[in-house]
From TrEMBL:
Protein name, UniProt field: Gluconate 5-dehydrogenase
Provenance organism: Phyllosticta capitalensis
Lyase is among the record's keywords: no
PANTHER family, alphabetized: 7-ALPHA-HYDROXYSTEROID DEHYDROGENASE, OXIDOREDUCTASE, SHORT-CHAIN DEHYDROGENASE_REDUCTASE FAMILY (AFU_ORTHOLOGUE AFUA_1G14540)
UniProt keyword terms in alphabetical order: NADP, Oxidoreductase
Record-linked InterPro entries: NAD(P)-bd_dom_sf, SDR_fam, Sec_Metab_Biosynth_SDR
């Protein structure tokens, strides 16, 4: 027994979830889940986090808050680069602006998105197109345009990471049979999560791992209206197996994990963040 124990070589796991020196880009990073993720990345050791969203003021305010965090690494910084991710020309401009600061990107969180609620019989074409364009097409082209920077510092032993933000509505179904039916949103989130699986196979050999996160309800400016429409926060918490809704640290921790050495063999997967509610809803 003593000889067998002597042969065991224990690994040093001290920094298994640290992101020292990593460079990240967070689209839709000026508020909500994107902002929480950016905060988590900086607090896990990232050296630079580029925050982008359509509104310049929101990006600047987010970066001011992030740069005031007391527990960042020395010299770590959030940088504002406003851009409209719904336009490929703006994505290209975003990449060009990021390249002025760095010659590589280690982490891309494609989090920008939109939703729309309307009765099935009245759902407007323009709204359906807007949701599909921003939630699917723009994510594809954001990843495509950033791939050269993601490849630049990537190796098989230390791959770059791409994370797309989906939704449990893209795994089960969203809101139906109501004045705020979200069929287009649900379809877009199913599509973006499946796109991540395809890109995991496409980009894995190039040193880029691609995964998705599917949040349930997280109270936020975007979600609060729908939360009230489907019963309110208290009722949703009671119905959830773990008796609460999502917290900022739930999403931030999932992002940090997927970007860390601890998730170095996770590719093409989806982390569901809803406390088990999707399975409770599936009960007969």
């Amino acid at each position: 027994m003593a000889d067998a124990q002597a042969d065991v070589q224990l690994k040093d796991f001290q920094n298994i979830f640290r992101l020292e020196g990593k460079v990240a880009v967070v689209t839709g990073g000026s508020r909500g889940l994107g902002l929480h993720a950016a905060s988590g990345l900086l607090q896990a050791g990232a050296s630079r986090v580029f925050i982008t969203s359509r509104k310049a003021k929101a990006c600047e305010e987010a970066c001011a808050a992030l740069n005031a965090l007391p527990n960042k690494a020395p010299g770590a910084k959030a940088i504002s680069v406003p851009a409209d991710s719904s336009k490929v020309s703006e994505i290209e401009r975003l990449v060009a602006e990021v390249k002025k600061h760095t010659d590589k990107v280690d982490i891309l969180l494609a989090n920008a998105g939109a939703t729309w609620g309307a009765p099935f019989d009245e759902h407007p074409e323009q709204a359906f197109t807007k949701v599909l364009d921003l939630n699917v097409k723009s994510v594809f082209f954001t990843i495509q345009k950033f791939t050269p920077l993601l490849e630049a510092g990537a190796t098989i032993s230390d791959p770059s990471r791409v994370i797309v933000t989906g939704s449990v509505a893209g795994i089960g179904i969203g809101t139906t049979n109501s004045a705020n039916a979200t069929t287009g949103y649900s379809v877009s989130k199913a599509a973006v999560l499946h796109m991540a699986r395809n890109l995991a196979v496409e980009l894995g050999p190039r040193g880029i791992l691609v995964n998705g996160i599917a949040p349930g309800f997280f109270p936020s400016k975007m979600a609060n209206g729908l939360i009230e429409l489907v019963g309110g926060k208290d009722n949703l918490e009671k119905a959830n197996p773990n008796k609460r809704l999502g917290l900022p640290e739930d999403f931030a921790a999932a992002v940090v994990y997927l970007c860390s050495k601890g998730a170095g063999h996770v590719n093409g997967d989806t982390i569901v963040l809803d406390g088990g509610n999707i399975w409770a809803r599936a009960q007969l």
